[in-house]
């Protein structure tokens, strides 16, 4: 076995497919976020809420998988049970709770009510959800295991 040849072939393979390797880590994170979004909606469905997709675009749910973009250009879930109403958004900007003007983007945001996040473009630029309107949120992290 020629170890040098094998090493050179592996390096060449990695170089040829570097874009796919770079995108793999992004896709894994997006899948984790979509999993958390799904679990949140399933929680409310199992609790007796009627869960519907809102703002489907061409019949498809368009998830926000980064901090960029306005919520009114993307889809969200509406959860209704009697007079209780929640919206579940992905990667929603939320104002910090310490009045320090910090904005945090949470992977899954459960919002109380239906009038806290704009549904259409407005003249005033939307920055973030008021912290008091956030019922709860979920953050997902991909931890890479490595030898120490």
Descriptors:
26% strand, 5 strands, elongated, alpha+beta, five-stranded antiparallel sheet
Describe the structure in your own words:
- This protein has 148 residues and is α+β, with helices and mostly antiparallel strands.
- A 5-stranded antiparallel beta sheet has the order 1-2-3-4-5, covered by helices on one side.
- Strand 3 and strand 4 form a beta hairpin.
- The longest helix has 29 residues.
- The radius of gyration is 20 Å and the shape is elongated.
Task: Summarize the structure in short.
The chain has helices at residues 3-16, 18-46; strands at 50-54, 76-81, 84-95, 103-112, 134-138. It has two helices and five strands. 29% of the residues lie in helices and 26% in strands.
Mean pLDDT: 86
What's the alpha carbon Rg, rounded to whole Å? 20 Å
Helix content: 25-40%
Record field, number of beta strands: 5
Please write the string of helix (H) and strand (E) elements: HHEEEEE
Within the largest sheet, what's the order of strands?
1-2-3-4-5
**Low-confidence sequence ranges:** none
Computed structural class: alpha+beta
**Count of helical segments?**
2
Beta-strand portion reads: 25-35%
**Largest sheet composition:** 5 strands, antiparallel
Q: Shape from CA axes?
A: elongated
For the termini, the CA-CA separation is 30 Å
């Amino acid at each position: 076995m020629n170890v040098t040849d094998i090493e050179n072939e592996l390096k060449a393979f990695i170089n040829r497919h570097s874009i796919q390797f770079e995108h793999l880590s992004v896709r894994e994170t997006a899948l984790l976020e979509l999993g958390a979004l799904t679990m949140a909606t399933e929680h409310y469905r199992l609790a007796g809420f009627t869960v519907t997709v809102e703002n489907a675009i061409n019949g498809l749910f368009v998830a926000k998988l980064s901090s960029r973009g306005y919520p009114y250009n993307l889809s969200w879930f509406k959860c209704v049970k009697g007079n209780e109403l929640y919206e579940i958004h992905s990667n929603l900007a939320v104002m910090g709770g310490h009045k320090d003007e910090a904005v945090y983007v949470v992977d899954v945001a459960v919002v109380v009510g239906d009038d806290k996040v704009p549904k259409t473009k407005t003249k005033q630029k939307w920055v973030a959800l008021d912290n008091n309107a956030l019922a709860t949120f979920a953050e997902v992290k991909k931890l890479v295991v490595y030898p120490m």
